[in-house]
């Protein structure tokens, strides 16, 4: 009977765990929908902003703004790492950490999110700054992050600034991605951004031409408009990577919690079957003992 009690306790424990994972799955699903809508909503704006900048680039000198200034290769690099504050989201942070260690082994770090902040901090890298962002992500909270990255680049402390984040592709697919932020690559402004799930070799050659074909009038001058749009571009790039990462987080957590709930239900069935077998064996054993005792009394 001790074995039966142990199995009953295990069944009860697994049922309680299944209730928790099911609740977390529902919460993540609700947050996932909002985060996905927020991430997708900004992509058209980013594409249009790129097209305007392409046209601007053709009307000014490419070195006219310090954010476009190319530095020498092999210079010091700063990496903005966007991870999650909470766990239980599958291998999301692990995959991003592996890509960072493989592709950016020497870069200094600015973090958003606690998980990789702790992990990268133990690796001996220089941690320049850390930020916390609310959920859902307000655009205003991306500005201090972009301002710091821009300031460190303009001061010459770093020759290159990149962003490591998890690109939202679909509910089941999240891809670790590293995107160059500064200096702004003028030659790639007309291309689809990496976080749109389209690789650069898939971009149509007509996209760049279409951006140039539009006739813009810049007032007071193209240079003044460029001074305003480039900081906005940097701010929006940081914001978009934050919302892409948040959509990936909630999607991965929803999928992970669903898998945990399904596994718990499967485990409960196996334990219940084992419990019934032991119970039936115990009942059979008792019946045999009673029958044996009755025959002995005859």
UniProtKB/TrEMBL annotation:
What InterPro entries is this protein classified in?
Answer: ATP_synth_F1_ATPase_gsu, ATP_synth_F1_gsu
Source organism, top-level taxon = Bacteria
Q: What are the protein's UniProt keywords?
A: ATP synthesis, Cell membrane, CF(1), Hydrogen ion transport, Ion transport, Membrane, Transport
Classify the protein's membrane topology as the record does: Peripheral membrane protein
List the signal peptide residues: none
- Tell me where it resides: Cell membrane; Membrane
Note one Pfam family from the annotation.
ATP-synt
Q: Does the keyword Manganese apply?
A: no
Q: What does this protein do?
A: Produces ATP from ADP in the presence of a proton gradient across the membrane. The gamma chain is believed to be important in regulating ATPase activity and the flow of protons through the CF(0) complex.
Q: Which NCBIfam families match?
A: ATPsyn_F1gamma
Assembly information from the UniProt record: F-type ATPases have 2 components, CF(1) - the catalytic core - and CF(0) - the membrane proton channel. CF(1) has five subunits: alpha(3), beta(3), gamma(1), delta(1), epsilon(1). CF(0) has three main subunits: a, b and c.
UniProt lists the family membership as follows: Belongs to the ATPase gamma chain family.
Recorded protein name is ATP synthase gamma chain
- The species this protein belongs to is Haloferula chungangensis
């Amino acid at each position: 009977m001790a074995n039966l009690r142990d199995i009953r306790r295990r069944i009860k424990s697994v049922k309680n765990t299944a209730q928790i994972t099911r609740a977390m799955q529902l919460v993540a699903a609700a947050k996932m929908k909002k985060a996905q809508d927020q991430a997708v909503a900004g992509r058209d704006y980013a594409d249009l902003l790129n097209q305007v900048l392409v046209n601007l680039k053709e009307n000014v000198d490419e070195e006219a703004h310090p954010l476009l200034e190319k530095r020498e290769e092999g210079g010091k690099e700063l990496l903005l790492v966007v991870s999650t504050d909470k766990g239980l989201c599958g291998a999301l942070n692990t995959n991003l950490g592996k890509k960072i260690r493989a592709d950016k082994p020497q870069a200094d770090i600015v973090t958003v999110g606690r998980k990789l902040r702790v992990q990268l901090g133990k690796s001996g890298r220089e941690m320049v700054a850390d930020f916390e962002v609310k959920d859902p992500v307000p655009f205003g909270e991306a500005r201090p992050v972009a301002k710091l990255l821009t300031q460190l680049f303009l001061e010459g402390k770093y020759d290159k600034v990149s962003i490591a984040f998890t690109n939202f592709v679909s509910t089941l697919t999240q891809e670790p991605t590293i995107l160059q932020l500064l200096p702004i690559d003028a030659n790639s402004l007309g291309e689809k951004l990496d976080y749109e799930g389209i690789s650069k070799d898939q971009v149509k050659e007509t996209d760049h031409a279409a951006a140039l074909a539009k006739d813009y009038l810049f007032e007071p001058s193209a240079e003044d408009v460029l001074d305003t749009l480039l900081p906005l571009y940097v701010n929006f790039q940081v914001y978009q990577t934050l919302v892409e990462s948040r959509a990936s987080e909630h999607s991965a957590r929803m999928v992970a919690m669903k898998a945990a709930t399904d596994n718990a239900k499967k485990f409960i069935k196996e334990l219940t079957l084992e419990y019934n077998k032991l119970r039936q064996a115990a009942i059979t054993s008792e019946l045999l003992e009673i029958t044996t005792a009755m025959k002995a009394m005859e």
